[in-house]
């Protein structure tokens, strides 16, 4: 969708009453839309880790600043400029001010897109598929007072595993104990659902360790090897069903590919999906000036086993 400025300019073409709930072909007036507009503005201002009640309170406490931003965006207090997403916040200030000043706020016709973001979407799907209560809790599929942070949740398990190894005098665990952070493992957790390998996890973690410069560069590789193992193990402990489902899908892909067939399925909407991963045939042409390599893609070429599995 582009930058903050681009998103701040986006509006729905069709206006809808902000309090409308469409149910059985009738509009029912509620205040739910106003609630979500306030939540949206609070999120844009960096308050997305608070509970819903606290986010609403944050907006209500700043109503005068919000209305001032709408009335005098350049010459007023310019509260909107302090937001993490200033242009989207300004657009929401305009909208919320118009809602407040409307004689019937619930009937105000709104065009503002209210953003809804997932929490590590791939793990959300796996938690739902596996009916995994613990995993679902970490990725906000179950109700909590405050939003859960999946990366911090996995980090806590990683730290516990490292502490246990450190007590047993594991040399690398002793070095890493107290030196592992959310940012150290975030990329590995994020890419786990895309089939990140141990080597990929080790490279990601080694890069983060070098950036922080808290561990000797010569030891960063060895520490990354150990921490990659611990992180993937901890992920399996938090998302046990995800690990089992991924292993099952991997086994299916191996069986299908071993019969030289691509993995394919039909989505619930009836859309046929095919993984078109096949081996490539290369042709090298030698000329006086240089070598030219041409790659031939053909549906008759053999299936690429490892890519079908990943």
Automatic annotation (TrEMBL):
Molecular functions per Gene Ontology: DNA binding; DNA-directed RNA polymerase activity
Protein known as: DNA-directed RNA polymerase
Source taxonomy: Eukaryota, Discoba, Heterolobosea
Catalytic activity: RNA(n) + a ribonucleoside 5'-triphosphate = RNA(n+1) + diphosphate
Any one cellular-component term (Gene Ontology): mitochondrial DNA-directed RNA polymerase complex
Highest taxon listed in the record's lineage: Eukaryota
InterPro entries on file: DNA-dir_Rpol_C_phage-type, DNA-dir_Rpol_phage-type, DNA/RNA_pol_sf
Annotated Gene3D superfamilies: 1.10.287.280, 5' to 3' exonuclease, C-terminal subdomain
Pfam hit, one: RNA_pol
Keywords: DNA-directed RNA polymerase, Nucleotidyltransferase, Transcription, Transferase, Transit peptide
